[in-house]
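Protein data:
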Amino acid sequence: MPHPPILIPEIGNGEERKASITQDGFSKVIDEIKGAHPDVLILLTPHGSASHHLIAVNESDVYRGNFVDFGFPRLALEADSEKMLREKILAFGTKKKLSITGNKITLDHGALVPLYFLKKEGITLPMVHLSVGWSDSQEAYETGVMLGSLCKEYDKNIVVIASGDLSHRLKETGPYGFHPKGPLFDEKIKEAFDTNQLQSLLDIEEDVIEEAGQCGLMPFLIASGMLKELTVNTTCYSYQNPYGVGYLCGFATIDVEKTPHPAVLLAREAMKQYVEKNVVLDVASFKETFPDDPFMERGSKVKAGAFVSIHSKGNLRGCIGTIESVHENLLQEIVANAIEAATRDPRFHPIDASELDELEIKVDEMGPLEQVQSKKELDVQKYGIVVESGYRRGLLLPALEGVDTVEQQIAIACRKAGISLSEKYQMYRFMVTRYH
């Protein structure tokens, strides 16, 4: 994805309309991201500070930045850091002796512009902010290959955004004037996407790279390396150079079988055993069928609340959960709540064995509750909500279809608890990890 701040209406002040093709490309890429249901974002940007390394991992717990360099200090964004993944990347870099270091910096415009458009579409994800320095193409690609192997073992669905503009030398009126190698560089990048040959980025000649005056190649090479061991299909959704700089919006779809997450397989098997045989699933035996699976290993050791949601033909068929853990570990929590959702949700009759194969199941692992004082601290996509008054308590999960505003979220949670909106009540927010 490109990152020109002029695309943002508050900054462009009408000039952004010249880049309408790029804006349309942004929308299509973001639609792809939505459809992928990611849990975590890795954002590669060439405009942070890599401190003479290829990659610098931002170790801040909350990432913040604004557009002060473009005259808009009050246009600010923030995102939570995915601490576990950033620490894994740093440790992996040390172990493999890669050119990776750590830093603590504010978000640069290479990160802020994609985040602005993601937030505009209601996408807020915990992320890892990676500043990318300069290296030779082969090192960048091979580092990406190794990071890809690390991410493959991570227990969440990851989307990677490689933020970068193409040549800045496409027009005499552009930022660096015109050079014939500028259009050539852009053609080679676009061809790599059009032909689904991302590895061909390694073949771009050094003199073309040098004369193009670009900032995107290193992030693109790292991201391409991360995909090497996967079967992907690339799409170039837009290419445009309205201001003398090349902007390409593209997406690489990973071609994998839609295998449900182990948490969902666990919930489904628990329902099946109970509905068909009136037997509670033996978690230890089930776990043995997933040797070395990161989620199953972690789930057998940690305690957390969990919700199991069941849909049939698009309609809710059951949903039961626990805000905090009441069982030995997370796996046991999922099993117990799967059985409850299938057989004891008072809104529905118990699920019959004939329905099992048609059911769609989601599992939400609960994060800790945080008390909030105002609606400004809520976000329907990012946070679920708990409302509480005396012994009455109502909960609503985040990112639910049809719940578009904080006001709706609060009203529904209060209604579930039997709390009037005119009463005094406490509000708590929480995040979930959602498994499909």
Q: What stands out?
A: The chain has a mean pLDDT of 95. The CA atoms of residues 59 and 375 lie 29 Å apart. The longest strand covers residues 72-80.
